[in-house]
Amino acid sequence: MAGITRRVGVASSMGLLIFGVGLAACSLLRLAHLFPNNDPLMAVALPYAKRRSRWMAIAFPPLAMLLFDLFSAKLGIWTAVTAGTYGLLGWAFSALYPRLAARGCRIGPLTYLLSGVAGVFVFDFVTGPVMSSILFGLTFRQAALGQVPFTLWHLASVSAYAIVVAPVVERMLSWVGRSEPHLARAMGVQVGASGRLA
User: Fold this and answer.
1) Which residues of 41-73 are buried (b: 16+ CB within 10 A; e: fewer)?
2) 179 burial type by CB count under 10 A (0-12 exposed, 13-18 middle, 19+ buried)
3) Which of 23, 83, 153, 158 matches a 20 to 30 Å C-alpha distance to 164?
């Protein structure tokens, strides 16, 4: 355990635990079908986009899509398209947030809400009109019109989760980041002058 602690970091292990719990919670919430297009994925992924663990913002949505499709026995081309689109959104936000922060913008609940709305439009455009017209032989216009109610539900879902869940994930990740040097010292792991694990 000590070797793993030195390589990964005590709090980093806790961060991975939060990541895993987030994956499980998203899968269970989506399987519960609380309402149409129940989608907590972006609300959990977006807080990772502003941290040094930004790779998690890229990895979380595809893994969540893969898990959900495995649990619901719907693995297929749609999994690759949705997972890939969400992964690209995670990458885009992880590239955008540091730039916004460098300009003095605060990355918080409003940013997560606006990012979630923008992400829904991109995701639903790619997985709706574009892919439906390719995979199901619909015209682009038919697919776009059929997408409207789905996108409205998706916007409502992502907005609600961005307002409620993203700040909670943000607080948990902030706590883990602040606790890492203290937890490491308590376990006898060397901590550098910067407060990071040596």
Assistant:
1) bbbbbbbbbbbebbebbbbbbbbbbbbbbeeee
2) middle
3) 83
Note the pLDDT tens digit of each residue in 106-132. Answer: 999 999 999 999 999 999 999 999 998
Q: Tokens 């916004």 correspond to what residue?
A: 100
pLDDT band at residue 33 using 50, 70 and 90 as cut-offs: confident
Output the 3-class SS for 49-117. HHCCCCHHHHHHHHHHHHHHHHHCCCCCHHHHHHHHHHHHHHHHHHHHHHHHHHCCCCCCHHHHHHHHH
Q: Check if the beta carbon of residue 72 is closer than 8 Å to that of residue 64.
A: no
| Measured distance CA(104)–CA(97) in Å, rounded | 11
